[in-house]
Design a protein that fits this description.
The chain has about 110 residues and is mainly α. The chain is about 50% helix and about 0% strand. The termini are far apart.
């Protein structure tokens, strides 16, 4: 009886056969796949891990919450991903949402 040849399956995260596209922010998976820096784990467009002003660090330190935190996040990365206008519009969208929420609270 002939042995069955093992078939390689694509990565369930990135779909690649060699995991070159993986961006899952899971320490065990990243270690297993040899990924040190991913698009999720301290990406450069948010300041990077070594930057004391990395967006998430500032947002958490200042306790900004979701809408204002996203406002700051998109402002901070506006010139770093090549989509400045889009990021500024996203920032404005979150700011406007926060303003509308506050106005609604003040109406009551």
């Amino acid at each position: 009886m002939a042995k069955k040849k093992a078939t390689k399956k694509p990565c369930p995260v990135c779909g690649s056969m060699n995991h070159t596209k993986c961006t899952l922010d899971d320490p065990i998976t990243n270690e297993m796949l040899g990924i040190e820096d991913s698009a999720v784990n301290h990406p450069k467009h948010y300041g990077g891990e070594d930057d004391p002003y990395e967006a998430i660090k500032v947002i958490e330190a200042w306790g900004l919450g979701f809408n204002i935190g996203n406002t700051v996040k998109y402002l901070a990365r506006a010139d770093k991903k090549g989509k400045r206008l889009e990021d500024l519009k996203k920032s404005l969208w979150y700011l406007n949402r926060e303003i509308k929420n506050l106005e609604k609270i003040n109406e009551d």
